[in-house]
């Protein structure tokens, strides 16, 4: 079975938003410009959220989903989305293992990753309970997409860490996140509005966490001489093997 053109349209659409939203960075600026920078960084994710809210439960959204499922087949399911959401995290720790220069120490990376996911997940799952929107497949708690929020949160952490030293690596996380979002729709797990809002929440929350540098002075491992981190993942588990030299 051929993947329909609509699939590629979804991927291109989300990639344009995510990539363009991150191209609005300014470096070494004073406080007033920093405020302008965070405002600019917020425009695109806020737009994603706004469009998602606008098309939520609309005739357009429902027709889009029906047409898409008719293209791929009513029983089509490819569970790439369950795995690709972790890809930016794996990329980050593999890059650390190969000593690719990053913005922050590995502990600060982990700290911002945890804080960003904690905040974005709290927002996402609170909205799920409040809205109680039905998924395309009939299951509850559709809006917004948790997989998409998680994937774009991880991708934005990766971007912030490697945007200056390895742009290809930095942007690659968004390709995985976008594909995750696309397959949430294709697999009939989420509506278009669910993934748009999920992507917006993930990008916006992470941008704010990096802007304000929450707990920026907390790092008990700053004086470690070296670290080796090897991620692992199977169909039931995900984690990181770690070796630290003091």
Structure keywords:
246 residues, mainly alpha, 63% helix, 9 helices, two-stranded antiparallel sheet, 2 strands
Overview of the structural elements:
By secondary structure, the chain is mainly alpha-helical. It has one domain (5-220). It contains nine helices and two strands, in the order αααααααααββ. A two-stranded antiparallel ribbon has the order 1-2. Strand 1 and strand 2 (238-245) form a beta hairpin. The radius of gyration is 18 Å and the shape is globular. The chain starts with a helix and ends with a strand.
Topology, element by element:
Elements: H1 5-22, H2 31-55, H3 59-72, H4 81-84, H5 87-97, H6 106-131, H7 146-162, H8 167-186, H9 192-212, E1 226-233, E2 238-245
Antiparallel strand pairs: 1-2
Radius of gyration equals: 18 Å
Q: What does the largest sheet look like? A: 2 strands, antiparallel
The N- to C-terminal Cα distance equals 54 Å
How many strands? Answer: 2
Shape, please? globular
> Major sheet: order of its strands?
1-2
Number of domains: 1
Tell me the strand percentage band: 5-15%
Task: Indicate the percent of residues in helices.
Answer: 55-70%
- Topology pattern, helix = H, strand = E: HHHHHHHHHEE
Structural class: mainly alpha
Question: DSSP helix count?
Answer: 9
Low-confidence stretches: 20-30
Arithmetic mean pLDDT = 85
């Amino acid at each position: 079975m051929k993947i329909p053109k609509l699939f590629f349209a979804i991927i291109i659409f989300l990639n344009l938003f995510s990539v363009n939203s991150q191209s609005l960075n300014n470096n070494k600026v004073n406080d007033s410009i920093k405020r302008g920078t965070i405002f600019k960084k917020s425009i695109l994710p806020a737009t994603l959220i706004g469009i998602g809210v606008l098309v939520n439960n609309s005739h357009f959204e429902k027709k889009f989903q029906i047409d898409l499922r008719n293209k791929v087949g009513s029983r089509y399911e490819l569970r790439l989305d369950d795995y690709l959401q972790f890809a930016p995290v794996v990329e980050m720790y593999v890059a650390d293992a190969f000593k690719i220069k990053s913005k922050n120490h590995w502990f600060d990376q982990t700290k911002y990753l945890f804080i960003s996911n904690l905040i974005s997940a709290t927002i996402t799952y609170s909205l799920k309970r409040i809205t109680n929107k039905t998924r395309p497949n009939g299951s509850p708690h559709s809006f917004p997409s948790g997989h998409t929020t998680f994937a774009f949160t991880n991708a934005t952490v990766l971007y912030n860490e490697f945007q200056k030293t390895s742009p290809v690596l930095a942007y690659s996380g968004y390709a995985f996140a976008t594909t995750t979002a696309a397959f949430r729709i294709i697999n009939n797990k989420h509506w278009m509005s669910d993934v748009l809002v999920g992507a917006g929440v993930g990008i916006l929350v992470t941008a704010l966490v990096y802007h304000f540098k929450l707990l920026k002075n907390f790092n008990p491992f700053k004086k470690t001489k070296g670290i080796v981190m090897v991620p692992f993942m199977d169909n039931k588990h995900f984690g990181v093997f770690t070796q630290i030299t003091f």
